[in-house]
Design goal:
The protein is of the alpha/beta class. Helices cover 37% and strands 20% of the residues. It is globular, with a radius of gyration of 16 Å.
Length: 146
């Protein structure tokens, strides 16, 4: 009985969400042939990248064994998003009502990886000031009590 009630509540919420952005989630987006670009062309609303901190670089891969030197968070996502924001005069999409969430899943220790993400994002102020992009953090998120 409770499950039916929850489904009834979610259905109206999902239909409202479809008005402005896609509710499709590109899980492990970096495994696509063209990370970010494919999701962008399909107007996908949520794009996920698993991130490993290696030195001062944020490497994108599903496992540590799959890390490749040219697959950084900057090259696969941040640079491309910056380019789209420039191209669309501050909006991620030509239609400024469309939005995207970049989900960054921390695969290495939380505090140091999160600090590195903050430092990288400081190089991209346009990403943190647009209302058409949200950066969400998941995975090894540091305990908020500290």
């Amino acid at each position: 009985m409770k499950r039916s009630f929850l489904i009834l509540i979610l259905i109206p919420c999902l239909s409202l969400a479809q008005d402005k952005s896609s509710i499709i989630f590109s899980h492990n987006d970096y495994l696509q042939k063209n990370p970010f670009e494919s999701a962008y062309q399909l107007n996908i609303g949520y794009v996920e990248a698993d991130v490993f901190l290696r030195g001062d670089k944020l490497m994108v891969a599903h496992t540590a064994a799959e890390i490749k030197p040219d697959r950084t968070l900057e090259s696969l996502y941040l640079d491309k998003i910056k380019s789209k924001l420039h191209e669309n005069e501050g909006s991620l999409f030509p239609d400024a009502s469309r939005k995207m969430t970049l989900m960054i899943d921390l695969k290495t220790e939380g505090v140091s990886t999160l600090n590195a993400i903050v430092q990288h994002l400081k190089k991209y102020p346009q990403l943190t000031t647009t209302n058409t992009l949200t950066v969400a953090i998941s995975g090894n998120v540091p305990d908020t009590a500290h």
